[in-house]
Design goal:
By secondary structure, the chain is an alpha+beta fold. The protein is 42% helix and 30% strand. Strands 1-7-6-2-3-4-5 form a 7-stranded mixed beta sheet.
Length: 168
């Protein structure tokens, strides 16, 4: 049982390792005219000069504006199509999905780890003479928690965020 618990802990540690996309990276510096190939068609978060963040899908980068399909409305930018002036953009965070491998692997590892931990907890609780229903509930709850945790860690691995600092 200790081996199963150690395996679960090791799996979580490997998925959250600094080599994964969870690690902080140095921002890329780019001029306005270099933004188009990096942002067009991707989900972006723009940080403006006043500190406000505008989230949406980049449509096009023009001479003086970035056309954006705003997904989360904020003051001055309603949901839908909007033009963000070049002078007000400080940085752009571009989110790219890289497949489903991390989510699939994370879910499997999380489920197996949760099942192992649930079996260990149930074995320890049998000393207290719990009923079969309580043992099954504990096992299923811990296994489900492991599945959800594994999926969330895998989702973080699948999504890559590139931080772009716009230079004049």
């Amino acid at each position: 049982m200790i081996r199963a618990l150690s395996l679960a802990a090791l799996s979580v540690a490997l998925l959250a390792a600094p080599g994964s996309s969870c690690a902080e990276t140095k921002p890329v510096e780019a001029r306005w005219n270099e933004l188009a190939p990096m942002v067009d068609g991707h989900s972006v978060t723009l940080t403006l000069t006043d500190g406000m963040q505008v989230k949406g899908d980049a449509i096009a980068v023009g001479e003086d504006v970035l056309q954006l399909n705003v997904s989360t409305p904020v003051k001055g930018y309603e949901k839908g199509s909007a033009s963000v002036p070049r002078a007000s953009v400080v940085s752009v965070d571009v989110r790219r999905a890289r497949g489903v491998g991390g989510r699939a692997l994370g879910t499997v590892i999380g489920t197996l780890g949760g099942m192992a931990l649930g079996a260990w907890v149930d074995a320890r609780n049998n000393v207290l003479k719990h009923s079969f229903g309580q043992d099954v509930g504990t096992f299923v709850g811990i296994a489900a928690g492991g599945s959800v945790g594994g999926y969330l860690v895998g989702s973080a691995i699948d999504n890559k965020v590139t931080h772009i600092r716009v230079i004049p």
